[in-house]
Amino acid sequence: MSKLVLIRHGQSEWNLENKFTGWIDVDLSEKGVEEAKNAGKLIKEHGLKFDQAYTSVLTRAIKTLHYALEESDQLWVPETKTWRLNERHYGGLQGLNKKATADKYGDEQVHIWRRSYDVLPPKIEDDSKYSQVHDRRYADLDPHIIPRTENLKVCLKRVMPFWEDHIAPDLLAGKNVIIAAHGNSLRALTKYIENISDADIMNLEMKTGEPVVYTFDDKLNVTNKEKLDD
């Protein structure tokens, strides 16, 4: 029976500043570092051992993974970074303060952009300082693949090929896997794993730094789900 642990990165500097982050590469806040380390301590306390680690190409998720593995004495575990586990791309909202955006467009519109399953935020322009089209970490991608905006539906379509090609085969081979990623990429995975409806996924929250542990049978059916806390 294989296990999969999902961890949303610890609080980031822009979480703290209440900004739309998306694919912008920001660091962990001091609290975020402590959350990531605490996740590792909980993992160690529960005796969880990993064979493979995955994360995004964004600093806040990478550091969360490393802190968690280091605190659980497993920094040596093989890891793979992929853009497919990046946070949802918030388009033209990236870099904006959430409260200021709500004041400008209205609370209802911003809530729809943030929480609707299939409504897209405004697209980001390629010449914006918050665009990723010229970011070196995506240089090997077809420029048309780099998002200009995403909703959770699009984010799920982006994440699923990585699940199918890497994560699921690992689990079927009996490996235990840890993924440190982002609120929306992990919500997308959770939607698939638990077969959550389009409507109900909007109510799912992922706490920063909280390990969520799934146990699977040999057909990848979930036999147990546990959230680790102090």
Number of strands: 6
**Outline type:** globular
Widest sheet: strand ordering: 3-2-4-1-5-6
Helical coverage, percent range: 25-40%
Report, as a whole number of angstroms, the end-to-end distance. Answer: 25 Å
- Provide the residue-averaged pLDDT: 96
Give the class from helix and strand content and strand pairing. Answer: alpha/beta
Share in β-strands = 5-15%
| Tally of DSSP helical segments | 7
Give the radius of gyration.
17 Å
Report the uncertain regions: none
- Give helix and strand order, one letter per element, not per position: EHHEHEHHHEHEE
Largest sheet: 6 strands, mixed
Active site: 9, 87
Pfam family, one: His_Phos_1
Keywords: Gluconeogenesis, Glycolysis, Isomerase
Catalytic activity: (2R)-2-phosphoglycerate = (2R)-3-phosphoglycerate
Structure in words:
By secondary structure, this protein is α/β, with parallel strands linked by helices. Helix content is 36%, strand content 13%. It has 7 helices and 6 strands; from the N terminus they run βααβαβαααβαββ. The chain has helices at 13-16, 30-45, 59-71, 98-105, 107-115, 152-172, 183-194, and strands spanning 2-8, 52-55, 79-81, 177-181, 212-216, 222-227. The chain has a 6-stranded mixed β-sheet. A hairpin with a 5-residue loop joins strand 5 (212-216) and strand 6. The protein is globular, with a radius of gyration of 17 Å. The mean pLDDT is 96. It holds the Pfam family His_Phos_1. It catalyses: (2R)-2-phosphoglycerate = (2R)-3-phosphoglycerate. The record marks 182 as: Transition state stabilizer. Pathway: Carbohydrate degradation; glycolysis; pyruvate from D-glyceraldehyde 3-phosphate: step 3/5. Catalyzes the interconversion of 2-phosphoglycerate and 3-phosphoglycerate.
